[in-house]
Write a structure and sequence with these properties.
This protein is an alpha/beta fold. The chain contains 16 helices and 6 strands.
Length: 346
């Protein structure tokens, strides 16, 4: 009986954790995405075809997607540029220019030591399938839940990648969430616009003419009510009909936008690498820095980590300093971010 109760509690905890992940899949903090070489190759092809950066890069520019790449994966991409150039029919220098100007300014490169790569058994399962995919798998496992931007669903199956287009579908869901949230906010704010405009106008009138402005406002309101009451019944019905139509349209717009955001969150959740059963402290530190809007100190990190895996600030500081320049980058005195910016050499 005790075992059954513990099992139910574990299932409830998992459900609550997944529900919290789903509700947090907005775009305010951004979604972490880990790039693989083949996804970059397809992105380069799309950019050459359409003459604009792909949605992955545009989402990163907008701040709704945080892009990360393992250092060895970036090295592999650089080494494969001559092959990609031959396939795409452009000079290698052109691909390198596109990456340096459009892609890499929005990608944080993380160089994982062997101890962190082996922290998640799912990454080890990918390594057993293909050692070349091990670096990207390890970084995605540490940052999960996140998007693993790859086309290779065979090698990355242990991380929940099931289809060729799963990464692309996740990026599209991120864009849909951002657009939908904007529409929801617009639908909520639109009815308040006349009131805000009236409030701003009254403030200006009071500052300019004094308390007498309120008398004018009362006269206008009373005049409007009197005008409405004096209208024929048909015209009053028409006014009510127009007001009702506007209200119904706003309500429909809000409902459709909110429903679209919810469905996009479901789609995004299905495309993401699931969170680990047990998150190691190192992984929690990396994920917190991956989604932080600015650099964090050891003391700030200590406050934001979950109590179950919280470390003392001095131990955190030691860990950050140990991996400074590889996993983390100290961009200000005592302030760290995850990864560093790189540029491909000529």
């Amino acid at each position: 009986m005790t075992g059954q109760r513990v099992l139910r509690e574990d299932q409830l905890n998992t459900m609550f954790a997944e529900a919290a992940d789903l509700s947090s899949l907005g775009t305010r903090r951004g979604i972490a995405g880990v790039l693989d070489t083949d996804f970059i190759r397809d992105g380069l092809q799309n950019q050459l075809t359409w003459r604009i950066p792909p949605s992955t890069v545009r989402s990163a520019r907008a701040g709704s997607l945080r892009l990360f790449m393992e250092y060895n994966t970036l090295t592999e991409t650089s080494e494969k540029l001559p092959k990609f150039a031959g396939q795409l029919g452009v000079p290698v220098a052109e691909l390198r220019r596109i990456l340096n100007e459009d892609w890499l300014p929005h990608i944080e490169v993380v160089q994982l030591p062997s101890s962190l790569r082996a922290a998640d058994p799912r990454a080890l399962a990918v390594r057993d399938r293909d050692a070349a995919d091990y670096p990207a798998a390890a970084l995605a496992a540490l940052l999960s839940p996140c998007l693993l931007l790859t086309r290779n669903y065979k090698h990355f199956g242990p991380l929940g990648v099931r289809t060729y287009d799963q990464g692309r579908d996740g990026v599209l869901a991120v864009a849909e969430i951002r657009v939908g949230e904007t529409r929801v906010q617009a639908a909520l704010m639109l009815p308040a616009v006349p009131l805000r405009a009236a409030g701003a106008g009254m403030k200006w009138a009071c500052d300019r003419f004094g308390p007498g402005a309120w008398v004018v406002l009362a006269f206008l309101i009373g005049g409007g009510i009197y005008w409405y009451c004096r209208q024929p019944p048909e015209r009053r019905d028409r006014v009510r009909e127009v007001a009702g139509t506007i209200g119904t349209h706003l309500l429909d717009e809000y409902s459709q936008s909110a429903d679209g955001v919810f469905r996009a969150r479901l789609q995004l959740r299905a495309c993401m690498v699931p969170r680990p059963e047990v998150r190691a402290p190192a992984a929690a530190i990396m994920r917190e820095l991956a989604l932080a809007p600015e650099s964090l100190s050891a003391a700030q990190l200590a406050e934001q980590l979950e109590p179950a895996i919280r470390l003392r600030a001095d131990r955190l500081r030691e860990f950050l300093r140990e991996h400074d320049g590889t996993v983390f980058d100290q961009v200000r005195r005592g302030g760290y971010v995850l990864g560093s910016r790189y540029e491909l050499p000529d």
